[in-house]
Design a protein that fits this description.
Layout: E1 3-9, H1 13-22, H2 24-27, E2 30-38, E3 41-52, E4 57-66, E5 72-79, H3 92-103, E6 108-114
Antiparallel strand pairs: 1-5, 1-6, 2-3, 3-4, 4-5
Amino acid sequence: MKHYLEFTVNIKPVQVSQMIIEETELKSNLIFQDYKVAEEKEIVILVFQKFFLRNNSTATLTVTIDNFNGVTYVKCISSGNGEGMFDIGWGAGKSFIKPIRLRLAANILEIIEDH
């Protein structure tokens, strides 16, 4: 089951990624990291992978952080965490995103989408 969270923050993309990676729960699950900058525009891509025993599945969490529109956008997409024909995730996807939201809570300006 896919879960998606998008919000804006009041800090630069590289600072956001550093804060996320410092989160112990996520740091050990980081499998890919990329950072690009061109003329004051930045983008960071982080990919995490975690096994959830509760539904016997491996989930991924892809986080993109950019400031292409002058504001820093953070987009979190959790997938692959459902099981069976009905793709039941038992909350695994939301719990994978939760540490990011909590870590950045003081810097969040606006939540754009949360589902």
